[in-house]
Design a protein that fits this description.
One of its GO terms (molecular function) is metallodipeptidase activity. By secondary structure, this protein is an alpha/beta fold. The chain is built from 13 helices and 13 strands.
Length: 382
Amino acid sequence: MGKMTRRVLLAGGTAVIAAGAYGAYAWRKRPDAAPLGFDLTDEELARGTAFLKANPAIDAHAHPGRTFLRDASGLSPMMKAYGAKGIFERRTVTDMVEGGLAASSFAAVADINVLSPTKTGIAESRPFEPGEAWASYKTQIANLKKLASNGVVTPFSAPGEMDAVRATGKPGAIWTVEGADFLEGSSDRLAEAQADGVQSITLVHYRANEISEPMTESEDDSALSGAGEAIVREMNRLGLLIDLAHMPEKAARQALELSDRPVMFSHTHIKTPELNHPRFISANLAREVAAGGGVIGAWPSGIGISDLAGYADRIFTLIDAVGIDHVCMGTDMDGNYKPVFDDYRRLPDLTGLLLKRGMGETEAAKFFGGNLLRVWGQSVAA
């Protein structure tokens, strides 16, 4: 059989989407897709597609359509310009359906109001006004829940609901929050977040909050605060999955040691001699997370890689470091830096490539969904 090229795949995908329930949204202008960096035969692509029909694929960390910018106030001029590029949840949900993604994190961004791009990344540009962080959280979670009430997604509130979610024909939506800034250091607010349907919280994002400094602004000796310790304990008690992405190594280790449940680094990679980036973690810390039963989300940021084949390399590197039982997919979709996996319609390509390169279907089932469901379930069991 002939090889399935990127042009053919995308043309076919667009035709299918145009006929679908969300077709009108698929024609909005979007950036050019990141390159594949490989070819698959028709049979190899079909194998990837068949795998996704038989096994749930879940994204541990994403911002589908950038809901976090909807109704946002007090944004910096640069963030306003970013927001002007559009909010497009239905388009991304269309991509999920077309690509065979079963469910995803839909992450609010707790510090979005006070962030601004810098020459080296993203950082806090001003302090929060009193009560602003909590009000922003409530706005964002209300907008996320509208996606469910409007019939765009199916709320996904426990791992055991996976089969029921898939039966709806709509992607499952796991409400999460990136950054615990909205708690303002109070573990008492976690119960209300849980009542809102939040399943996981990333303790730190790009702002130094009441829990810790972010890894991008801190040396590795930044510690977990007393308020952070109380929040970790209460998240364990309530059954909320702890996400340590963006947290510096010392604080992350303290949270890991304190937690009586496995934790997650939802989107990162390990540092290597060739690439030592502030958003990556050490191989030793990754192994400690794995030893505690946790999971690390393979992150397709364009830091050191330039195509989807590079993301596959990254996945195998993580598996070699911590084992197949401790790696999942964490794309940071619609919020990533120069992503090499930037469109859920490419999921069959990624799946086909991993299988082609020797990942067994049992292993792939763990990577794409099983590991995340296990760790989430162990948190919920609290």
